Amino acid sequence: MAKIRVGDAEETVVTRGEWPLERAMKALGNETIAVLGYGVQGPGQALNLRDNGFRVIVGQRRGTPTWDKAIEDGWTEGETLFEIEEAARQGTILQYLLSDAGQISRWEEVRAQLTPGKCLGFSHGFGVTYREQTGIIPPEDVDVVLVAPKGSGLSLRRLFVKGKGVNSSYAIFQDATGRARERVISLGIGVGSAFLFETDFQREVWSDLTGERGILMGAIAGVFEAQFAVLRKNGHSPSEAFNETVEELTQSLMPLVAENGMDWMYRNCSTTAQRGALDWRHRFRDAVTPLFDELYESVRTGEEARIVIEANGRPDYRERLDAELQDMADQEIWRAGKRLRELRP
Fold first, then answer.
1. Which of 7-16, 37-46, 304-313 has the least mean pLDDT?
2. Is 124 designated active site?
3. What residue ranges do the domains of the chain occupy?
4. DSSP, residue by residue, 205-250
5. If you count DSSP H runs as helices and E runs as strands, how many of each does the chain have, helices first?
6. What is the pLDDT of residues 128-157, one digit of tens each?
7. Pairing between strand 56-59 and 81-82?
8. By C-alpha distance, which of 199, 186, 181, 211 is closest to 6?
9. CA distance linking residue 339 with residue 95, whole number of Å
10. Is 303 exposed, middle or buried (0-12, 13-18, 19+ CB in 10 A)?
């Protein structure tokens, strides 16, 4: 583990060079990692761990599409694929990767399998940070850790297959055995992290909820819709509006930013684009900063957690969600995008 300067701060990071796969496998050589939940993060983490040589089993509710997906991915019922409670019983490290709502609903049966010395792992700080609302209070005689890949489960798996990886944060909430650190770092290396940076459960969930509601999903979708609507209102075709709003950003500019940074991308565009972007950047930042302040406060106080728990607890939640997502799919911007993606070579 090394201290490095990142921006204006000093951070602790762990690289594969410092903590190679062989060291991780030795640290977890006697462990059975039970990946509980095979939805968003479960497949990527379970498959990467398995391919890296760790002893892995999967816990998922039988009769669900995700159970069928696990079988398609090579997990064998009764050998490496079990109901959640049985997988939790067999595992010494329980990677609790159900949705936040699923973690709340299955907590009591999982908690009953947390015998002394086991390790409870998360990829999101929600359940523990907001434990007064979720009821997820781990027993004191188990390790409680977090490895949070900074990307979707699909990206985690795709990059792993290519020999790459996504960055992950790691945290220790509780070290009952004295082995929590080697367990969590070994898990992070095992799931295919490019490198690991240190955080805590609270900071992870506060930054994650802010990011999801902000620039990663909520803000970017809202800005896409606003610009597309203005262009269409002023007579631009759907193809032109979509390309200038979404396609050029995702297919051309963001890959350059990912590779070289925003300043490099600015240096390598037209002088007209440079001047306009430099001027309007400040106006957009100043306009949205108050909204981000409001968002962060809502996350910090637990209001966003309350909204999520209340919404997910409604008996018609799935129907409401499907209706909201269908409403998004029906908007002209995303209907245009679907058609134009078909034209890509």
1. 7-16
2. yes
3. 2-199, 214-341
4. HHHHHHHHHTTTTHHHHHHHHHHHHHHHHTT--HHHHHIIIIIHII
5. 19, 10
6. 999 999 999 999 999 999 999 988 888 999
7. parallel
8. 199
9. 39
10. exposed
How far apart, in Å, are the Cα atoms of 277 and each of 24, 265, 266, 284, 292? 46, 11, 8, 10, 21
Q: What is the dihedral of CA 289, 294, 296, 300, to 10 degrees?
A: 160
User: Which of 106, 124, 157, 232 does the annotation list as catalytic?
Assistant: 124
> Could you tell me the two tokens for 343?
């034209």
Radius of gyration of the chain from Cα atoms?
22
The sign of the torsion formed by the CA atoms of 85, 87, 91, 97 equals: negative
pLDDT of residue 46: 97
- Residue 258's Cβ-count burial label (10 Å; 0-12, 13-18, 19+) is exposed
Residue of 57, 103, 61 whose CA lies nearest to 78: 57
Q: CA-CA distances (angstroms) from residue 5 to 12, 242, 252?
A: 9, 39, 30
By residue count, the chain amounts to 345
- N- to C-terminal Cα distance for the chain? 44
**Cα–Cα distance for residue pair 297/69, rounded to 1 Å:** 39
Q: Which fold has domain 2-199?
A: Rossmann fold (3.40.50)
Residue whose structure tokens are 């379970």: 46
* HEC readout, 116-173: CCCEEEECCCHHHHCHHHHCCCCCCCCEEEEEEECCCHHHHHHHHHCCCCCCEEEEEE
Look up tokens 């007209």; give the residue.
272
